[in-house]
Amino acid sequence: MLILAFDTATAVATSALVDDGEVLGERVSSAVTLLEDIDALLRQAGARPTDIDALAVGTGPGSFTGTRIGLAVARGLGLALGVPAAGVSTLDALVAGAEGAFPVIDAKRREVFVAGPLALRADDLELAPGRLCVGDGALRYRDVLEGKGAEVPPEESELHLPRARHHAALAADFGQVDLVEPIYVRAPDVHQQMSSLLSTEHIV
């Protein structure tokens, strides 16, 4: 089965083309170049879009906009090619790349996304001494996590990337692409701002 996998939930987007477990190609870039990356992967493997059997897409949690981009691309390709898709948690993909690690994704607003999934302040995390933490949230809050006794790999370590090859390996229960749902954990910023405005009494 030829699987096209990608994740755009974090600042660094990953994509991969995997054929029956064999990685034919991988790319690391950003969400805005995802379609270019997919085209490059297919060309590199000597494959055509119609050769794709299924899609594996990262569902977050992470950036609201980034996650939506990935899902939009998946739905567009899935419907155009008539292929099934499966969603894979970005947190699970991080763990697959660093077995036993504690995945930490930057959630902005001075928070991180962790397994649960939950959005918490890094200061509120309870970690066992020596616990390995990976992800862009672990990098951003390295000082806090290491202050709690955790271990954070160097910034250039691949362990911090939710590699799309892991999405392909974790993908299961392929089905209709429009049924793949994102993992947001909390409402996007614009919804929070609107709620705040609507709940505020303005005196004219």
Polypeptide structure, described:
The C terminus is likely disordered. The chain has 7 helices and 10 strands. It has a 5-stranded mixed beta sheet, sandwiched between helices. Strands 7-8-9 form a 3-stranded antiparallel beta sheet. Strands 6-10 form a two-stranded parallel sheet. With 204 residues, it is an alpha/beta fold. Helix content is 33%, strand content 22%. The protein folds into 2 domains: 116 residues, ATPase, nucleotide binding domain (Nucleotidyltransferase, domain 5, 2-Layer Sandwich), CATH 3.30.420; 62 residues, ATPase, nucleotide binding domain (Nucleotidyltransferase, domain 5, 2-Layer Sandwich).
Helix content: 25-40%
CATH architectural grouping of the largest domain: 2-Layer Sandwich
Average pLDDT works out at: 92
Give, in spatial order, the strands making up the sheet with the most strands.
Answer: 3-2-1-4-5
Number of strands: 10
Structural domain tally: 2
The protein's oligomeric status is: single chain
Radius of gyration: 18 Å
Note the beta-strand portion: 15-25%
The computed structural class is alpha/beta
Please summarize the sheet with the most strands: 5 strands, mixed
**Gap from first CA to last CA:** 64 Å
- Coarse morphology: globular
Number of helices: 7
**Uncertain stretches:** 190-204
How would you spell out the order of helices and strands?
EEEHEHEHEEEEEHHHH
For CATH, the homologous superfamily of the largest domain is named as: ATPase, nucleotide binding domain
- Indicate the CATH class of the largest domain: Alpha Beta
> Within the CATH hierarchy, at the fold level, what is the topology of the largest domain?
Nucleotidyltransferase, domain 5
